[in-house]
Amino acid sequence: MIRRRFMSRIVNWHLGVRNSNSPLVDCDLGPYYASTNGISEGSFCGYLAGALPRVYSTSCSKLSENPHSSDHASDMLTDSFGRMHSYLRISLTERCNLRCQYCMPAEGVELTPSSQLLSHNEIVHLASLFVSSGVDKIRLTGGEPTLRKDIEDICFSLSSLKGLKTLAMTTNGITLARKLPKLKECGLTKLNISLDTLVPAKFEFLTRRKGHDRVMESINVAVESGYNPVKVNCVVMRGYNDDEICDFVRLTRDRPINVRFIEFMPFDGNVWNVKKLVPFSEMLDTVEKQFKSLKRVQDHPSETAKNFQIEGHIGTVSFITSMTEHFCAGCNRLRLLADGNFKVCLFGPSEVSLRDPLRGGADDHELRRIIGAAVKRKKASHAGMFDIAKTANRPMIHIGG
């Protein structure tokens, strides 16, 4: 059965069926200053000592038309600010085979008992409610999603949902290389691999584990398997890996790799400090000094990254600027945590359980009501990095990457 459906997907891909949903939008690109995002000039900008003279942003005259015409769908997933949420991130597990310093404390975190995590059937049931209501992209996260023993079955079940166009996964790449052929067969269409350093010894320091060679192998296997682009996520921290930015950019020269530089974000247990934060403007200046032909690419209004192309490079370079230039106005993302809690904002502490009512016998109408009410409570934007750092939230390992 898997093979027959896989062949059908290949035919659809060649016909352009799965990739025909990218509407054109009318966007203006121009200078943007961090102070317009509500960041305290006296605190952050003072610390940077004028490091934000030129920052890029996307200003869109209107968001793309909602492809889901049913009033029921648009109402459940549209918040009070008119944002339609078509992207669901599902954390499959809280377990991980690394101990990244920006993700969890050295001693690890207390994990939710297995019996309280969502089962395969529960994940698919809840995902089907979202997809039937307008979600067309699902990303699987963790913990480390490949540690879930039924990961292939989950991928197959989710990729079979009518209306889902993209099934993506974010992984640390430790076990990906050997699992990727089956995952692709089961419907995995996009891939992000986390890698914060190209130096093996530094990798062991940052992750508190060995495995750099296995991550590099996974990137190579992903490229060879036809993923285009293979996205490489790099959290940049001052004094740790900020000296490797241009080395990462060189990965894009000859292969379809999209390197995504991510600003260091505060979560419980990761000892966030603004002095570790390398702002987007500084990263951009570093790249531009060595790659003069760096040019901005027009982005979709719901895009989290600011994307750039370098002349002669097959791949691309992106910056995720959650701290210095938030992109909340175009946010279309929701999160389902491994324990069944539903979260409408990565940085917001508010959560509501979908597991408990599901196990308590709630029907789909009631589950939709709970989801819709939570979406309506979503705020216009997150509180800003200094307030986020002081707000109780879960460790990233619990929330999902």
Automatic annotation (TrEMBL):
<dbReference type="InterPro" id="IPR000385">
    <property type="entry name" value="MoaA_NifB_PqqE_Fe-S-bd_CS"/>
</dbReference>
<keyword id="KW-0342">GTP-binding</keyword>
<comment type="subunit">
    <text>Isoform MOCS1A and isoform MOCS1B probably form a heterooligomer.</text>
</comment>
<dbReference type="InterPro" id="IPR006638">
    <property type="entry name" value="Elp3/MiaA/NifB-like_rSAM"/>
</dbReference>
<comment type="similarity">
    <text>In the N-terminal section; belongs to the radical SAM superfamily. MoaA family.</text>
</comment>
<dbReference type="Pfam" id="PF04055">
    <property type="entry name" value="Radical_SAM"/>
</dbReference>
<dbReference type="InterPro" id="IPR007197">
    <property type="entry name" value="rSAM"/>
</dbReference>
<dbReference type="GO" id="GO:0051539">
    <property type="term" value="F:4 iron, 4 sulfur cluster binding"/>
</dbReference>
<keyword id="KW-0479">Metal-binding</keyword>
<keyword id="KW-0004">4Fe-4S</keyword>
<protein>
    <recommendedName>
        <fullName>Molybdenum cofactor biosynthesis protein 1</fullName>
        <ecNumber>4.1.99.22</ecNumber>
        <ecNumber>4.6.1.17</ecNumber>
    </recommendedName>
</protein>
<keyword id="KW-0501">Molybdenum cofactor biosynthesis</keyword>
<comment type="similarity">
    <text>In the C-terminal section; belongs to the MoaC family.</text>
</comment>
<dbReference type="InterPro" id="IPR013785">
    <property type="entry name" value="Aldolase_TIM"/>
</dbReference>
<dbReference type="GO" id="GO:0046872">
    <property type="term" value="F:metal ion binding"/>
</dbReference>
<dbReference type="GO" id="GO:0006777">
    <property type="term" value="P:Mo-molybdopterin cofactor biosynthetic process"/>
</dbReference>
<dbReference type="GO" id="GO:0005525">
    <property type="term" value="F:GTP binding"/>
</dbReference>
<feature type="domain" description="Radical SAM core">
    <location>
        <begin position="80"/>
        <end position="303"/>
    </location>
</feature>
<dbReference type="InterPro" id="IPR013483">
    <property type="entry name" value="MoaA"/>
</dbReference>
<dbReference type="Pfam" id="PF06463">
    <property type="entry name" value="Mob_synth_C"/>
</dbReference>
<keyword id="KW-0547">Nucleotide-binding</keyword>
<keyword id="KW-0408">Iron</keyword>
<dbReference type="InterPro" id="IPR040064">
    <property type="entry name" value="MoaA-like"/>
</dbReference>
<dbReference type="InterPro" id="IPR050105">
    <property type="entry name" value="MoCo_biosynth_MoaA/MoaC"/>
</dbReference>
<comment type="function">
    <text>Isoform MOCS1A and isoform MOCS1B probably form a complex that catalyzes the conversion of 5'-GTP to cyclic pyranopterin monophosphate (cPMP). MOCS1A catalyzes the cyclization of GTP to (8S)-3',8-cyclo-7,8-dihydroguanosine 5'-triphosphate and MOCS1B catalyzes the subsequent conversion of (8S)-3',8-cyclo-7,8-dihydroguanosine 5'-triphosphate to cPMP.</text>
</comment>
<dbReference type="InterPro" id="IPR058240">
    <property type="entry name" value="rSAM_sf"/>
</dbReference>
<keyword id="KW-0411">Iron-sulfur</keyword>
<dbReference type="GO" id="GO:0061799">
    <property type="term" value="F:cyclic pyranopterin monophosphate synthase activity"/>
</dbReference>
<dbReference type="InterPro" id="IPR010505">
    <property type="entry name" value="MoaA_twitch"/>
</dbReference>
<comment type="pathway">
    <text>Cofactor biosynthesis; molybdopterin biosynthesis.</text>
</comment>
<keyword id="KW-0456">Lyase</keyword>
<dbReference type="GO" id="GO:0061798">
    <property type="term" value="F:GTP 3',8'-cyclase activity"/>
</dbReference>
<keyword id="KW-0949">S-adenosyl-L-methionine</keyword>
